């Protein structure tokens, strides 16, 4: 399944390739300015990348004053490398295969027969091999899941798989010759937004995800804020309604008790006296059913207060809202804004709220981006 060397470029060549990957196509003059190189040095460094097929010249632009001829901007060949990303939930492994620019080529899903780490590793590798059939070869495999995960890929705690101290990257590496990286799922999605999504070019933004859990990611000065506490679900226990229900840790009205899909379906289901799915809760609220509308309105206000807390502390240029439960933000739009304004200074600006694709494919794409970053940055 492996293809291509896991050996990123170094020095100025590395910086050139990274600039083109993220912002290309770029003219030679712009590249020289960004990396502070002479025209001759730029030609010398890009020549082997052009010969290897990593870079390509695209249709010419205006005359480049530094070389005295029509500009031929340089771009990455996205299909020069491919990556598989797999997102693990409590029930399934959801996979994608992408190009070097994280463009999704194919998706596939496999159920998890049980939560044994060995069984899950087998499923992930089988899924990756199936997806690899769609492309000439795979440079890397990225896997993401909810929980506390070390930089070495050990799962100290896997929230939805009931894992503790599982050397998951090693289990995967024993089963495949592709290079493997394992990451927290919110970290992976944040980096996908940062490099290839709505956060590209935004120096400071935060991500809030609502779904099975509550997640938070932060980019400051164009760099992910990554600490040993990532994956502990800390933002899920910020209080957003002092009169709200208890969470499993005994907190009144924290984000986990108010905003997860389970919390919302449980509250609406209890009010209606039957089991109910998340999207039906939102549909009923839109239709004005009192029991559903009350829960969704309260949850929307709580989400607004959570956004306010994030913006008050980090003052982002934009707030990204994602996760499979993100439709709440549109159905309860007015309540979200009311909750946000209630906890902001009246003269404070409301930051742009960007609603992201709620599908699980975006989580799997995030896992692929972590593999792409590991390949490109060599970390």
From TrEMBL:
Q: Does the keyword Transferase apply?
A: yes
Q: Which UniProt keywords apply?
A: Kinase, Transferase
Q: Is the keyword Transferase assigned to this protein?
A: yes
User: What is any Pfam family matched here?
Assistant: ROK
Question: Annotated Gene Ontology MF terms?
Answer: kinase activity
What does the sequence similarity comment in the record state about its family?
Belongs to the ROK (NagC/XylR) family.
Q: What is this protein called?
A: NBD/HSP70 family sugar kinase
The organism is Kribbella orskensis
């Amino acid at each position: 399944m492996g293809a291509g060397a896991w050996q990123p470029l170094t020095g100025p060549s590395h910086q050139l390739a990274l600039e083109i990957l993220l912002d290309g196509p770029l003219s030679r003059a712009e590249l020289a300015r960004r990396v502070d190189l002479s025209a001759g040095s730029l030609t010398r460094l890009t020549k082997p990348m052009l010969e290897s097929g990593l870079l390509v010249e695209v249709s010419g632009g205006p005359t480049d004053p530094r070389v005295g001829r029509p500009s031929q901007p340089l771009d990455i060949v996205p299909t020069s490398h491919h990556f598989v990303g797999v997102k693990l939930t409590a029930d399934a492994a959801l996979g994608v295969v992408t190009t070097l620019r994280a463009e999704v080529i194919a998706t596939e899903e496999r159920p998890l027969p049980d939560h044994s780490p060995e069984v899950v590793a087998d499923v992930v590798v089988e899924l990756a091999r199936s997806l690899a059939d769609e492309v000439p070869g795979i440079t890397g495999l990225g896997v993401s899941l909810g929980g506390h995960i070390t930089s070495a890929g050990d799962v100290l705690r896997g929230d939805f798989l009931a894992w503790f101290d599982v050397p998951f990257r090693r289990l995967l590496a024993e089963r495949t010759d592709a290079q493997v990286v394992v990451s927290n799922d919110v970290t992976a999605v944040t980096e996908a937004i940062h490099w290839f999504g709505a956060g590209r070019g935004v120096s400071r933004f935060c991500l809030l995800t609502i779904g099975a859990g509550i997640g938070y990611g932060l980019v400051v000065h164009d760099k992910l804020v990554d600490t040993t506490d990532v994956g502990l679900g800390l933002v899920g226990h910020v209080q957003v309604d002092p009169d709200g229900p208890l969470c499993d840790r005994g907190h009144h009205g924290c984000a986990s008790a108010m905003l997860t899909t389970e919390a919302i379906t449980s509250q609406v289901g209890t009010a209606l006296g039957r089991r109910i799915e998340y999207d039906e809760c939102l549909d009923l609220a839109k239709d004005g059913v009192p029991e559903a509308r009350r829960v969704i309105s309260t949850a929307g206000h709580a989400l607004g207060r959570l956004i306010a807390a994030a913006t008050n502390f980090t003052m982002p240029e934009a707030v990204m809202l994602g996760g499979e439960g993100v439709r709440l933000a549109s159905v309860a739009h007015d309540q979200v804004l009311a909750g946000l304004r209630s906890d902001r200074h009246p003269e404070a600006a409301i930051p742009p709220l960007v609603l992201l694709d709620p599908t699980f494919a975006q989580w799997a794409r995030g896992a692929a981006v972590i593999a792409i970053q590991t390949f490109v940055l060599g970390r």
